[in-house]
Amino acid sequence: MSIISKIREKSGIAVGIIAISLILFIVGGDLLGTSSFFGGNNQEVGSIAGETILYPDYQAKLDLARQNFESQNGRAATEADLVQLREQAWNQFIIDIAYKKEYDKIGLKVTPEELVDMVQGNHISPLVQQLFGGQQGMPFDKNQVIAYLQQLKKADANSTQGQQARKQWIDIENGVAAQRLAEKYENLITKTSYVTKAEAEKEYVAQTTKASVKYLYVPFYSVPDTTVKVTDSQLSDYLSKHKDEFEGQNTRTLQYVTYPIIPSRDDSMALYSQIKSLAKGLATAPNDSAFARMNSDVPMNTYMSIADMPEQLKGLVRTFLPGSINGPFKEGNTYFIYKYGGTKADTNFTARASHILIRPNGTGDSAKAEARKKAIAVLAQIRGGATFEAMAATNGSDGTAQRGGDLGYFKNNGGMVKKFQDAVFGFSGTGLLPNIVETEFGFHIIKVTEAKSNTLYKVVAIGKTITPSQATRDAIYAKAEQFALNYKTKQQFEEGVKKEKLLSATANRLADNATSVNSMQNAREVVRWAFNKDTDMNETSTVFETDNNFVIAQVTGKSDKENVRVEDFKDELTAKVRNEIKGAQMSAKLGGIKGATLEDIAKNYGAGAVVETANDITLATGFLTSAGFDPGALGKAFGLKAGKRSGVFTGENGVFIMEQISTVPAPIIADYTQYKTTLNQRNQQQTSYFVSQAIKDNAKITDNRSKFY
After folding, report:
1. Is residue 77 assigned to a domain?
2. What is the pTM of this model?
3. Domain containing 156: what range?
4. Is the CA virtual torsion 96, 99, 105, 111 positive or negative?
5. How many whole angstroms separate alpha carbon 359 and alpha carbon 372?
6. Fewest C-beta atoms under 10 Å: which of 280, 453, 562, 672?
């Protein structure tokens, strides 16, 4: 009895465990990972203007965007499509929350009458026009919209289809209204843009005043980086003084190894045996085309001209016997077998030819005459016994010269420019055309190497691509898993790379929304693991599969948006500080040199210093030959009087001494309307971007989507 009692006691616990397990199985990890079931709340996808966006709400909007996409495109959304749709759904929340708050502040609305006008009135929304556009180039007809709305009104409101249709239409109207509100708001802001006369005059002077300057320039790169030591304290000081220039980001740096999932020798042999078996089936199949379609990994046309054939067939097809099986031939990772089934006539012709192109060396009549003369001379040499291929190699002026002028096979339906095509297909047989042919590219000497033919060959093909078997995949995975188990720390990881003779790679500063890791395109799971709060630095991951590779990674570096450190921007900071040190050293050296001319100072300075002249430059578009565009140097130059020299100063990419030769002031004009208009148009073109950025910045957006997707 005691044993039975104990079983009964334990069975209650067992039933409870099973019940909880079933619940967790049904709802998945979301119950613990994304809900507040145990007091936490991990459902926050982000926040916009103080409003929290929860996962179910975001997912609902994303699902709707996906449904609309798949309905409009007639196909399932790919992973690349989903990335864009997630962004679209997120931007819609920004509009619904952040933008709406701005609209509400100024009482901006779309009235019901206005909405009707945009849907079926006189000012149809572009969105509606897109959704109800005419077919086959016909213009938009709003009667289609009216007819649709009438059908929607008659539809059964209680049916699932009727409810979905009404919901879709409400979404369309909301989109139309949102688009119109955005236009109104942007137009309001645009109308506030104003350019004063002083601003227009300043623009005119910057574009029109010209100066000729002479300058001494010592570029930073003239001093080797290795000669300048930069300390950590200098980097830290620079960062603290220039915090606004270095915006923090949440990033991760990974070190990883890959195990390519590639077919083994056994896989290749198995496929070879399979395709030999398929060859027998193809030979006896009552309907060989259907048999090929059912068994081939690579779709191929049944009837082909020589021009359309794979390279391996072109030289063999004429030796095939009807009904014969030929192959297998290997092309990359695919084996092909071909069954030849005779010929039929085509409506187009195919030919093969070589040419020697002589291009005019210029656009004038004399250049054209010279090219014609040369082409006639080359043609004469070939007629006299010179080989066409050798003459093509020495005289041809396009990419075919290195292969003896060979153009391969082409058709008479637009494969070549018309004059060339007419010459080739108007020629009977093979051989050298008697005259040169002129086209827009130049003058051609042409040799038909295979006569025109309108024969189509029936070639039924089966192509089977070698893929790793499950046994091969399992074996490769076992190796990758063993690496992950054996080498847990950073030191062990590096030792393992050497011991296993693997190549490791580094992915620097990955963003939390990255979908690729270097050349691995579908690596979202690796990135999510790297940003997981439970992932420790220098800890080896489990095995991930992406892009036909098994991947094992370690997080070797991280940066935090809220805590910018020197390590996050070490290369950029080092370059900045190093140039500051170089600039100070160069300036001190130049400042101690006396000389009547810039040439004298440059000579006494030594290697690295150059003296150049820039004539008729303007503040708006000034460009210094070696130094490039340097606003500070230009400002110094235009601030000098003719014949005067500046002191030593540091510019964008080096150290300068400027000397103005002359200035031609902008002529005085009475009307600056042209410049006022130009500036106003420039400002208005930037309005949309600046409005968007201002609203987003003001909304203090937090985006946690990378934790969920």
Report:
1. no
2. 0.64
3. 112-191
4. negative
5. 9
6. 562
